[in-house]
Amino acid sequence: MIKLENIHKTYFGAQPLHVLKGINLNVEEGEMVSIMGASGSGKSTLLNIVGILDNYDDGDYHLAGHMVKDLSENQAAEFRNKYIGFIFQSFNLIPFKTALENVALPLFYQGVGRKKRNALAMEYLDRFGLKDWADHYPNELSGGQKQRVSIARALVTSPKIILADEPTGALDSKTSAEVMQILRDVNATGITMVIVTHERGIANLTRKIVHLKDGLIESIEENDPDKMDFTKEIK
Amino acid sequence: MFDLDSITEIWQTITRNKTRSILTAFGVFWGIFILVILLACGNGFDNGMRSNIEGFSTNSTFMIPNYTTEAYKGYQKGRYWNPDMSDIEAIKMKIKGVDMISPILTEYSYNGDNNVFFGTKGGNFSMKGVLPNYNDIDRCKVLYGRFINETDINEGRKVCVLGKKVYEDVIGADKNPLGLMIKANGIYYQVVGVIEPYNSNITVSGSMDETVVLPMTTMQLAYHNGDKFDFFVFTTARGYKTKDLQEEVKTLLRERHDIAPTDEGAIMCFDFEQMFTMFDYLFLGIKILIWIVGIGTLLSGVVGVSNIMLVTIKERTREIGVRRALGAKPALIIRQVVAESLLLTILAGIVGLVIGVSIMAVVSGFVGNTPSEDVMFLDPQIGFGAAVAATVIIVLSGLMAGVLPAMRAIQIRAIDAIREE
Ligand SMILES: Nc1ncnc2c1ncn2[C@@H]1O[C@H](COP(=O)(O)OP(=O)(O)OP(=O)(O)O)[C@@H](O)[C@H]1O
Ligand SMILES: [Mg+2]
């Protein structure tokens, strides 16, 4: 599903910063992978490249069999809309839109009609127990509810991949556990999932843990989340 | 571009910060409002001025004889000459482009005493001998009877047409004047009509209101003028230049009356067209000025919209970035921003247009819209054309205001929003 070969990325700020120094990574369809590493190790950078939010300098990136390189803004937008759902640490819900409108937004960009869009969005909200909150604005929702709305938004277009950058970073442990359970359920439906986290407990709930260090993959750890005690992992 | 979804999207962003949107829109509202008010006032003055000259053929030229200023063909300079009826015929025959031509003969009460009487009642009025077509140049309303006609001229009938004031002063407004005999400068004439000028701002040797009008031939006979008269007036036919006609007429008259071809002083020329053209230019100038001022005001409104929207875009960086991440294409972002500015501008502009037009309709109701001779300000409203032009300008300025913010908006990449801080 995701195939990264020798990916390089340098930020040209005040001083050039070589953040990714040749990343090779394969994520198969239906896998659930976490990326760990010290702060500044390039986790977000990597995830943004995978999400076609940022470009890379060197190497090859194939997404669902398509070569992703030098895409136009329009192509990138289409790829993102079609293949990828994003979940952010800070939710990034649009504050002046209701939960329902937020979830329906990606469908709007696909050109789905209003009725169908709202019906589908409602279905996803319902799936995460948010039906009664459909008409509420983000500032009327708790952190956990917001993240569930954003998960619904990521899923509503039936993407192939969910990319989550610290999805539990802003949540307490109980809500984190709930959100992780939801993500695991989503993954169980066959959707590929890549989660960036610095919490070992979160990583332990994924099948593969990629350790990033100094712009390179240090190791890839196989893991059996089913052996983990859920409540104990997330403190 | 304006399906329900987009409108909802745009409406949401506009109403999110109502105060700011209203303040922003106010600039455009004000611009259009001022433009409408100014245009309407300009039209009001224009209409008022034009109503002052209503009824008088604006393409008429008066030709008045004067003392010659050069000696010529054995004549001394300083000779007085008079045009005569054969001049009129010659001009009609030889000069193309003269539409109407009418000679005029005038008399006054020389010592200032009353000269016009009905019975014992009298008044001091001027007298004017004309041909029937004079009423096509210096138009008057016929209140009773008729104007001078061809038969009057041909038979030299002793009839007269009275100006309204003459009628009221001498005969009395309560009496039917037709058929009555009045005495003017000692001669009796039968009243065949009463007239009232449409306009008394322009008068030819005395207002028609205070004139006893006689058939030209009758008057020539009564005052021993032969077939001479005092001066004449002609109008220019469509497609001819008044200036050219004047020269042709002057040349012809000089030939016919042995006046030196270079004698500019012997024939005085009074050209209404020139005066009215000046009027036209004056109002054109005012109109241009109004558009410049109005559009300038509007432009500052547009700059305001653009400016505020630039700020808004900056504040919305995160939101726009998220939209991009969710799959919004650049074209859609551009469309949205431009549509937002367009909607804001159009709403504000239309409100300005409607309020401006309404206010001026009320004002117009107060100042009236019936032409009359002594108004300066009449029917101050903008025409349909100007309203359409204003609407087009509103739309254009809305587009203009949106361009810069839209350009800024598409420079926002998804990554900018995703990156915290
Ligand atoms: N746009 C940018 N321009 C310049 N430098 C950048 C930019 N974005 C990130 N960096 C730098 O690249 C490095 C990697 O950043 P990145 O955000 O990928 O780290 P991270 O692993 O996600 O860290 P954290 O765990 O703190 O989120 C950091 O040193 C950061 O300062
Ligand atoms: Mg990060």
Q: What labels would you give this structure?
A:
heterodimer, A: 235 residues, alpha/beta, 6-stranded mixed sheet, 4-stranded antiparallel sheet, 10 strands, B: 421 residues, alpha+beta, 3 domains, 12-stranded mixed sheet, 13 helices, binds adenosine-5'-triphosphate, binds magnesium ion
Structural description of this entry:
With 235 residues, chain A is an alpha/beta fold. Chain A has helices at 43-50, 73-83, 99-110, 114-127, 143-155, 173-188, 200-203, 230-233, and strands at residues 2-12, 16-27, 32-37, 58-63, 66-67, 84-88, 161-165, 192-196, 208-213, 216-222. In chain A, strand 9 (208-213) and strand 10 (216-222) form a beta hairpin. Chain B has 421 residues and is an alpha+beta fold. Chain B has 3 domains: 4-54 and 277-420, no CATH class; 67-97 and 237-265, no CATH class; 101-234, no CATH class. In chain B, strands 1, 2, 3, 4, 5, 6, 7, 8, 9, 10, 11 and 12 form a 12-stranded mixed beta sheet that branches. The A-B interface holds A 44, 48, 51, 53-54, 73-74, 77-78, 80-82, 86, 88-90, 92, 94-97, 105-106, 108-110, 114, 153, 157, 165 and B 4-5, 9, 12-13, 16, 318-319, 322-332, 410, 413-415, 417-420. The complex binds adenosine-5'-triphosphate and magnesium ion. Magnesium ion binds at residues 43-44 of chain A. Magnesium ion (MG) is lined by residues 43-44 of chain A.
How do the helices and strands line up, and which of them pair or pack?
The complex is a heterodimer of chains A (235) and B (421).
Chain A lengths: L1 E11 L3 E12 L4 E6 L5 H8 L7 E6 L2 E2 L5 H11 E5 L10 H12 L3 H14 L15 H13 L5 E5 L7 H16 L3 E5 L3 H4 L4 E6 L2 E7 L7 H4 L2
Parallel strand pairs in A: 3-8, 3-9, 6-7, 7-8
Antiparallel strand pairs in A: 1-2, 1-4, 4-5, 9-10
Chain B lengths: L3 H13 L1 H35 L7 E6 L19 H10 L3 E10 L8 E3 L2 E3 L2 E5 L3 H4 L2 E6 L4 H6 L3 E5 H8 L9 E4 L2 E11 L13 E5 H7 L8 E6 L5 H15 L10 E5 H44 L1 H9 L4 H38 L16 H27 L3 H5 L3
Parallel strand pairs in B: 5-10, 7-9
Antiparallel strand pairs in B: 1-11, 1-12, 2-5, 2-11, 3-4, 3-8, 6-9, 7-10, 8-9
Helix pairs in contact in B: 1-11, 2-9, 2-11, 2-12, 9-11, 9-12, 11-12
